[in-house]
Amino acid sequence: MSAGDAAFSLANRTALVTGANTGLGQAFAVALARAGADIVAVGRKSPTETAASVAAVGRRLEFVAADLDDANPKDIVARALESFDAIDILVNNAGIIRRRDALELDEQDWDEVMNVNLKAVFFLSQAVARQLVERRRPGKIINVASMLSFQGGVRVASYTASKSGLAGLTKLLANEWAPHGINVNAIAPGYFVTDNTTALRADAKRSAEILGRIPAARWGEPEDLAGAAVFLASPASDYVHGVVLPVDGGWLAR
After folding, report:
1. 3-state DSSP assignment of residue 103
2. 239 catalytic per annotation
3. Is the sign of the CA dihedral 78, 46, 23, 234 positive or negative?
4. pTM of whole model > 0.90?
5. Residue 151 is part of which domain span?
6. H-run or E-run covering 110
7. Strand ranges (DSSP E) for the chain?
8. Distance separating alpha carbons of residues 64 and 25, to the nearest angstrom
9. Position 71 in a domain
10. Among candidates 139, 99, 140, 144, which has minimal Cα distance to 117?
């Protein structure tokens, strides 16, 4: 293995990925496995397809069933540590969205989005960081932000608030945990082909408007995130702290 390959190797690492059943989470899990990591997949449904893809590249996947809206992050980490010596990488991918005019958004929709997109991210990050500090191991935490970490959007008040808060939280945790050898960064996907964008892609007018602004002239595919994920999870990013990295086909540059 060359020095360059070693810098991006995740051999002997374990990565915990939330929402790894489909879409972006599945892409993150498979990309990290291809780079050498074993995977702990956290979610409500067994990630059968993801597990098969991970096994196909010779890595191991263990599933921890949990609903991040009300699960105890300490329990999630404890269950993961029943199968692995440590969690070296955390990808906070799971997220939900509620589309409704701000005048109509109710408290339940607000709380559900904030609980999954922000509260669960913080306390799961805390639980992972604590076991890293206890073991005196370096680690990587990757949050999944959004274009709405930079922009306001419309009809997604709770989602925008959560993803804007996540950008700030990423920087705060980077400041506090860098001395422990823990890198905290975020990836901000642009407009990707996922369940969350089904309604947008089905709206011919809105879809055309979105594509008209993207210099790459296409919706992102989950695999487009693989390189950024491996970089931020690997030794190649050891001096990268508190970054929110857009992977957006040039959306923010337009």
Report:
1. coil
2. no
3. positive
4. yes
5. 3-245
6. helix 107-114
7. 14-18, 38-43, 61-65, 89-92, 139-144, 182-189, 244-247
8. 14
9. yes
10. 144
How many domains does the chain divide into?
Answer: 1
Would you mind telling me the total number of residues written for the chain in this entry?
A: 254
- On whether residue 250 sits in a domain, the answer given is no
Return d(Cα 100, Cα 153) in angstroms, integer: 12
Which residues on adjacent β-strands are paired with residue 176?
Answer: none
Long-range residue pairs from 196-205, CB within 8 A, at least 24 positions apart, any chain: 196/23, 196/95, 196/96, 196/97, 199/99
Contacts of 28 (CB under 8 A, 6+ apart): 17, 20, 91, 93, 142, 225, 226, 229
As a whole number of angstroms, the distance between CA 114 and CA 162 comes to 6
Q: Which residues contact 239 (CB under 8 A, 6 or more apart)?
A: none
CA distances from 247 to 16, 116, 175, 185, 210 (A): 21, 22, 23, 13, 15
Of 159, 191, 219, 231, the catalytic one is 159
Of 216, 200, 218, 207, nearest to 253 (Cα)? Answer: 216
Integer Cα distance of 235 and 213 in angstroms: 34
**Is 254 part of a structural domain of the chain?**
no
| Span 23-80, pLDDT tens digits | 999 999 999 999 999 999 999 999 999 999 999 999 999 999 999 999 999 999 999 9
pLDDT tens column, 137-194: 999 999 999 999 999 999 999 999 999 999 999 999 999 999 999 999 999 999 999 8
Tell me if 252 is assigned to some domain: no
Give strand pairing partners of 16. Answer: 40, 90
